[in-house]
Amino acid sequence: MCLTLSQVTKCYDDHTVLNAVGFDVAAGERVALLGHNGAGKSTLMKIILGLIPADKGTIKVLGTEPGSNIAKTGTAYLPENAAFHPALSGYEQLCYYLRLRGENTNQAMPLLERVGLAQAAKRRIGTYSKGMRQRVGLAQALIGKPRLLILDEPTSGLDPVSRREFYVILDELAAQGTAILLSSHALTEVEARTDRIVILSSGVMVANDTLASLRRQASLPIRLQVSASVGKADEVASKLSGDRRNGVMVDLVCRSDEKLARLGDISALGSLIEDVDVIQPSLEDIYSHFSKGGDA
């Protein structure tokens, strides 16, 4: 495992920020760390990075203690608001970080190209947008081919195209064996681009599993959106005991274990049906369920 946490606890005075949190991140795995503001995500990341100690529990980063030379060399971190010297160009800033890491500065341009900043490499960072500064931060995080990547709201400030390109880079890194722990409030993005979901609520880990498994555990209703043939919506709604939504659409709600039976009912209507969409509970639904005390 690239990252192992067991019974990690952190308190400030009489306030418990993290309470016996434990999970693993394997090589090549993309794990989303979710939670409301104040849930303990940032504190947990600081502990993993060796910036603050845990009060209790065990933390292993690349098989060693947080903050050790091995952990620091093999771990990269990208904060939500990456800050750089405004008078330096993107190229100069990256060369500076490469020298700090003992790497050859000839890697600067390939890294900037990888994050889509080749055309702006010689411009001062003071002229960059927030999204462009975030890309500089990602380029900096990629120095040295990290084995563990810690990302805190990494797509903040990025436009939709840049967000898609960012996740393509993460997919490539995961395929090469990099372990990724990503904290984000952008649940729609995370839903399709991570392997496992960890949810913190008031410092307690309330979920740790794949999205498919969490859906089964939550047992939230599934929505079937049925497209009726022209002029047949009322008949379809009556036969299926559904709710007519507009001229051709009929909505059905069912439990997960009822889905196949309901699809059979729909199929039996033959030419009355044009199409059907199965709408599973979203990650936002799952997150809300477990954060409010759903069984983990």
From TrEMBL:
Alphabetized PANTHER family for the sequence: ABC TRANSPORTER ATP-BINDING PROTEIN ALBC-RELATED (PTHR42939:SF1)
Keyword Hydrolase assigned: no
Protein name, UniProt field: ABC transporter ATP-binding protein
Sequence ranges assigned to domain ABC transporter in this UniProt record: 3-227
Organism name: Thalassospira profundimaris
Alphabetical list of InterPro entries matching this protein: AAA+_ATPase, ABC_transporter-like_ATP-bd, ABC_transporter-like_CS, ABC_Transporter_VariousFunc, P-loop_NTPase
Domain of life: Bacteria
Pfam family of the protein (one): ABC_tran
Keyword Calcium: no
A GO term for molecular function: ATP hydrolysis activity
Keywords from the UniProt entry: ATP-binding, Nucleotide-binding, Transport
